[in-house]
Design a protein that fits this description.
By secondary structure, the chain is α/β, with parallel strands linked by helices. 35% of the residues lie in helices and 15% in strands. It has a 4-stranded mixed sheet, covered by helices on one side. 34% of the residues are buried. The model is unreliable at 174-184 (pLDDT under 50).
């Protein structure tokens, strides 16, 4: 990424920010675990595509903290997706997605880290295809879609009831340093 610049802004959709992005005319706009909607003006500034990396196998678990919900519900939406940014949350056409199931005994934090690493790899492949003009997108099935939000205490208790844990950053780092495949 030659010439890429990091600019901190408080509102991605502010007119001054949108104007700056339009002047730069990026090939891709990439949103990664970004909890703000990116408006049409900013999305349209990309010459190739405006995409998002999401921590579930879309269309399931659109919204916030998808890896928590994957584990709390033992559902079938485990994975990562790269999709087109759209007016509705996580509802754009999918360019790439892969299944990534939680491991036995794995905590939410460890799964989210593993998910993020795999998402980066999927993003690299999807971006290369988009830039080369060889990528195809596929619409999401609305019938399988659901939206999730931050968990409430009752949801966390359900996670615990299923034998899962949120995890401790210290334990995750300790296990990773020891070369373990998972954390408890």
């Amino acid at each position: 990424m030659t010439g890429a610049e990091l600019v901190a802004v408080s509102d991605i959709n502010h007119a001054d920010v949108a104007s700056r992005i339009e002047r730069e005319r990026p090939d891709l706009i990439v949103s990664i675990y970004f909890p703000h909607k990116i408006g049409r003006r900013v999305r349209d500034a990309a010459s190739v595509a405006a995409i998002n990396v999401h921590g579930s196998y879309l269309p399931g678990n659109r919204g916030l903290f998808p890896y928590f919900w994957t584990m709390a519900r033992d559902d079938q939406h485990a994975g990562v997706s790269v999709h087109e940014l759209f007016d509705a949350w996580d509802a754009g056409d999918v360019y790439a997605r892969e299944r990534l199931d939680p491991q036995d005994g794995e905590c939410v934090l460890s799964y989210s880290i593993r998910n993020a690493v795999r998402a980066g790899e999927v993003l690299v492949g999807a971006s290369a295809g988009l830039l080369a003009g060889t990528s195809e997108s596929h619409p999401q099935s609305a019938g399988d879609a659901n939206y999730v939000d931050w968990p409430a205490w009752a949801d966390i208790r359900e996670l615990w009831r299923r034998g899962r844990r949120l995890g401790s950053p210290l334990r995750v780092l300790t296990y990773r340093e020891e070369g373990q495949q998972r954390t408890r």
